[in-house]
Design goal:
Elements: E1 2-3, E2 11-15, E3 18-22, H1 23-26, E4 37-46, E5 49-58, E6 63-67, E7 77-86, H2 88-101, E8 108-111, E9 114-117, E10 120-124, E11 126-133, E12 136-143, E13 146-153, E14 156-161, E15 166-173, E16 176-181, H3 182-191
Antiparallel strand pairs: 1-7, 2-3, 2-7, 3-6, 4-5, 4-7, 8-9, 9-10, 11-12, 12-13, 13-14, 14-15, 15-16
Length: 193
């Protein structure tokens, strides 16, 4: 669900790396039910530069404040090119598209039961948390007793274990799933030489 923005309303001031989005001006209350906390995906532009960022908004509030260190580089004002509600389905589709687009494979599938791991349909993914921080969106997920985070920002998608170690993949075995950590993967490649 997105909001159509008239050209006269597109300019927003930046203050210390944060945007203050006035909800009535951008029609944010039309994106959900009163009191519902939602995730917003915004695309902002300044000249030729564009930035996609994420933030939270409670329907019925007057403002959504969204911050990102990257905004500091954009000057004092940006044009808000788009504002849309961002859901778990959007996260799954975007993660899959980014991974496939960079030569990888899909991570998730939608099934009648919900989200599952693409490597094994029977492995359902439980969403523990879905939140934003510093302009990025995060999903704290669990499957087969293993917790991991997936995050999307303007620089793409990243996977982490619960100790914040970067993951390079998830592998299914007869006993469950294995989270492949970046440092383990590097050691395997070095051992092959």
């Amino acid at each position: 669900m997105s909001v159509e923005l008239p050209n006269s309303l597109l300019i927003v001031s930046i203050s210390e790396g944060a945007l203050d989005i006035y909800a009535p001006k951008f029609g944010l209350d039309g994106l959900g039910s009163h009191g519902e906390k939602i995730v917003l995906k915004l695309t902002v532009a300044s000249g030729e530069r564009r930035l996609t960022m994420f933030g939270s908004y409670t329907i019925g509030s007057r403002h959504a404040q969204i911050s990102s260190d990257e905004l500091v580089e954009f000057g004092k004002e940006v044009e808000v090119a788009s504002v849309q509600r961002y859901t778990l389905r959007d996260l799954v589709e975007e993660v899959n598209a980014l991974l496939v687009g960079s030569g990888g494979k899909q991570l998730f599938l939608w099934t009648r039961e919900g989200v599952s791991l693409a490597i094994e349909r029977s492995r359902l993914v439980v969403v523990k948390e879905f939140y934003t921080y510093a302009g990025r969106v995060y999903g704290l997920l669990e499957s087969a007793g293993k917790g991991f985070k997936v995050t999307v920002g303007s620089d793409g998608v990243e996977l982490f274990d619960l100790q914040r170690r970067k993951l390079v993949g998830i592998v299914a075995t007869r006993k469950g799933i294995v989270l492949k950590r970046e440092f383990q993967h590097r050691e395997e490649r070095q051992g092959q030489h």
